[in-house]
């Protein structure tokens, strides 16, 4: 068992997939991976090394960004096994890695905090959630609150039609990201948590664009109701509805109020101000291919 296979198994477990079968099939299986499950098992056993173009796919599926120190270690272990001996590796690659890399304690802290409340979405679940605005906003309210919601509650919060949320909640229950509770309401399986979805196949790109388009189309919905209240006494703000200059889609600013002219000699106590700054938002955490 080489260094790469050990690193692959360790990172797969740390990413939340305790079994190889769960990692392969919950991430889309053969539709996403460029090889079969049987071949993937050979990678974990150290019987084969993957092609270089497969490494970014594996790293993305394990949710490891390029800025993470684990990314560099994973690629380094791959190169060590590829060159065969440590002498070959040090003579060819060693000088390139001579620069001291600082350890990112903030990354480790964030990883520990998220490890207890992050759940992975399958490709089918992700596509269903971003299929339309009602399903997306219903999912946002459910996972960002510990309470339960019905079609009436979601329609009142978002301003969207009640009939749309009746179909949306059925979709979320069918996709096993929510469950029915007493009173006909629906509650998230992972309340007050974070979800990670991933699009690695070219077929996923339209879906990722659709999720961003829904946020742009329905930004007034979030502007009207950035708070979701459930069973707790304090309201919770959905983390995807925050002010950010990234991916900003401003609302139409209000027209300025006309003012009357005053004589120059008269002292004016009013101050002039421009139109209000537009509300901005940032989409939720969705890892998509560059």
Explained architecture:
The chain is 43% helix and 6% strand. With 290 residues, it is mainly alpha-helical. The protein has 2 domains: 3-104; 120-237, Arc Repressor Mutant, subunit A (Orthogonal Bundle), CATH 1.10.10. Strand 5 and strand 6 (236-237) form a beta hairpin. Helix 2 (20-26) packs across helix 3 and helix 10 (151-158) packs across helix 11.
What keywords describe this structure?
290 residues, mainly alpha, Arc Repressor Mutant, subunit A, 2 domains, two-stranded parallel ribbon, two-stranded antiparallel ribbon, 6% strand, elongated, disordered C terminus
Please report the distance between the alpha carbons of the first and last residues: 32 Å
Uncertain segments: 198-204, 222-261, 263-290
What is the domain total for the residues? 2
CATH class of the largest domain: Mainly Alpha
Q: Helix content range of the residues, please?
A: 40-55%
Strand content: 5-15%
Q: What's the total helix number? A: 13
Mean of all residue-level pLDDT scores: 71
Taken in chain order, the helices and strands follow as HHHHHHHEHHHHEEEHHEE
Spatial sequence of strands, sheet with the most strands? 1-4
Summarize the structure.
The chain has helices spanning 3-14, 20-26, 37-45, 55-61, 69-83, 86-92, 105-115, 123-129, 133-143, 151-158, 162-174, 205-217, 219-224; strands spanning 118-120, 178-180, 186-188, 194-196, 227-228, 236-237.
Topology:
Blueprint: H1 3-14, H2 20-26, H3 37-45, H4 55-61, H5 69-83, H6 86-92, H7 105-115, E1 118-120, H8 123-129, H9 133-143, H10 151-158, H11 162-174, E2 178-180, E3 186-188, E4 194-196, H12 205-217, H13 219-224, E5 227-228, E6 236-237
Parallel strand pairs: 1-4
Antiparallel strand pairs: 2-3, 5-6
Helix pairs in contact: 1-5, 2-3, 9-11, 10-11
